[in-house]
Every structure is written in structure tokens, then in C-alpha cells.
Amino acid sequence: MLPECPYRDDILPLWEAIHDWVDGYLRVFYREDVDVRGDAEVQTWVRELAAPAARRIVCSRRLPPVDIGYEALDTVYTVAALRFNRLGRYPPGHFTDPQVLEHVQSFQARLEAIERTIVARNTGDPRGEGGPRPLPYPYLLPSRITASINS
Hints:
- By secondary structure, the protein is mainly α.
- It has helices spanning about 5-30, 35, 40-50, 65-80, 100-125.
- The model has no long low-confidence stretch (mean pLDDT about 85).
């Protein structure tokens, strides 16, 4: 295993935090797998996804001209840089169920702890678990990650 791999070192705690948040949220509403199978709306959605019409995605093996490809990438980077929303940050009143709020607060606390750890690694603080990095790697700071897609 590589001794210094910032992406690996930063993404694993994030993945675990996101996994636990989603798992906790779903378990508020679905205690067991059978509960999901019994949810008519979820099953309708699954059937829609599996329907032949949903598989009609056209893929082309041809690349666009370089100037169009460049403009498309430039647009994606510009829009992504706007970062309207942040991972784990929800508007007031977004979740009202007290059980869900517990999971939201736990998720937010974990993201804050992950942020502190990454900052410590990037600044050479000994609390950074693994020592100082030769170069800062700020790309997976939770404060810089958008929630899903920009809205």
C-alpha cells in the first residue's frame, strides 16, 4: 500500500460517513429489506428503471470536435465551481422527523471531524493522523464538496 495517498486517506472516512448517513436515514423508514419490497412506490420506480424505454440511452463512439469538447468541459468546471450547496448542509425545516434529525446531526458532526483531520494533515498538525503531507490536498474537504448536484 502506498504510504502517502491523499485521495485514499481522505475519501475512506467520507465514504463511511455517507454510507452510515444513508443507512441510518433509510432504516428510519425501512427496518428490513422486506419493508422495501413491500413499498409500492419504490417498486414502481424500480420497474420504471428496468423498463426497456429507460434503457434507450444513445451512446456515440465519436468524439466532438476539440473546440466543442473544450467548451463543454469549461462549462462543466465553471458550473461545478459555483457550489450552491454543501454535503451535509440542509435548509431549515428540510427534515422534520426527530429520528432523521438525529442522523443528520451525527452526519454533520462526522463531516466536521473529517474536515478538521484533513486540515490538520494539510497543515502539518500532528493531529492529522499520519503526519504532515508534502503538499496540501484540499479537494476532499467536506466544506468543498457539493451535495449531489448543484441545484
